[in-house]
Amino acid sequence: MTRYSKQTRILVAVDCIIFGFDGQEMNLLLIKRGLEPEKGNWSLMGGFVQPGESFENGAARVLKKLTGLGDVYMEQLFAFGDPQRDPMERTVSIAYFSLIDIHQYEKQISHDYHAEWFPIKKIPALVFDHLAMIELAKEKLRYKAALHPILFELLPEKFTLPQLQSLYEGIYDAEMDKRNFSRKVLSTGLLIKQKDKEKESSKRGAFYYKLDKRKYLTKFNAFLNFIPNPHNLK
After folding, report:
1. In the chain, which segments carry CATH 3.90.79.10?
2. Between the CA of residue 145 and those of 23, 148, 228, 229, what are the distances in Å?
3. Smallest Cα–Cα separation from 138: which of 17, 220, 46, 45?
4. How big is the chain by its Cα radius of gyration, in Å?
5. pTM, whole model, 2 decimals?
6. Is the dihedral angle over the CA atoms 169, 172, 173, 179 positive or is it negative?
7. Is the dihedral of CA 113, 119, 123, 128 positive or negative?
8. Whole-angstrom distance, CA of residue 141 vs CA of residue 20
9. Is 100 exposed, middle or buried (0-12, 13-18, 19+ CB in 10 A)?
10. Which of 17, 14, 24 lies closest to 168, judged by CA?
11. pLDDT digits (tens), the chain, 234 positions
């Protein structure tokens, strides 16, 4: 097979930024890196793209290897290509971010990689440029969550409005007015109120809601302008 002459090879990797919500705060799934350089340090889950494999398939393979998941929200974020980002060899990384419900899949997380959930405000030191990847993913998630209801991917089948508000406050690192939040989220018509309540958090309890998946798919823009001026939020 004919190849381009006088060209230096560049490795291509994928890194997965896996966000999860535990009912109270946002978390990030990290692993202990298993090879040099930086072996044993905290890292995003990643791997090299294999011959004949697309970036998307490579990211899906890496995600499934760690979590056992094959059908989760996953979106390409950015290509990180600083020539010095990997001291071992010139490597370009295509970063993806995923959203999962921690409680639904916590038993499937592979322990082979020493995987551990960290609160998003307490992330340890990471290898290479992985912190920059996470910060960009947070920025992208804040913007998208203001336009579309993608954060429901992080919630269990049944959830309360206080849980939903905690999720949004965690994403935007800002407190939101309880009544105003409830009014706006219910006005979207995407939630179905249940008869039962969650009573562990308070004596009165909070009603559970479910996402109307049919409306979620047909009215994906219902959250348009749900969060005003997303660029101005932290």
Report:
1. 11-137
2. 17, 5, 11, 12
3. 17
4. 20
5. 0.83
6. negative
7. positive
8. 12
9. buried
10. 24
11. 577 888 888 999 999 999 998 888 899 999 999 889 999 999 999 999 999 999 999 999 988 888 777 778 899 999 999 999 999 999 999 999 999 888 766 666 666 778 889 999 899 999 999 999 999 999 999 988 877 778 888 888 899 999 999 998 888 888 889 999 999 888 888 899 999 988 776 667 889 999 888 877 776 555 544 554 544 444
Token code pair at residue 110: 């592979």
Residue that is written with structure tokens 């010095």 in the block: 84
And the tokens for 76?
């390409």
Q: Are the C-beta atoms of 17 and 98 separated by less than 8 Å? A: yes
* CATH topology classification for 11-137: Nucleoside Triphosphate Pyrophosphohydrolase (3.90.79)
Task: Please provide the size of the chain in residues.
Answer: 234
DSSP string, 149-208: -GGGGGS-SEEEHHHHHHHHHHHHTS---HHHHHHHHHHTS-EEEEEEEE-SS-SS-EEE
Tell me which amino acid residue 193 is.
Answer: K
Q: Mind giving me the DSSP string for 92-140? A: EEEEEEEEEEHHHHGGGS-GGGT-EEEETTS----STTHHHHHHHHHHH
What is the rounded CA–CA span in Å between residue 168 and residue 172? 6
Q: Looking at domain 157-232, which of 3.20.20.100, 2.60.200.20, 1.10.10.10, 2.70.70.10 is its CATH number?
A: 1.10.10.10
CB 25 within 8 A of CB 166: yes
What residues pair up with 80 in beta bridges, in sequence order?
93
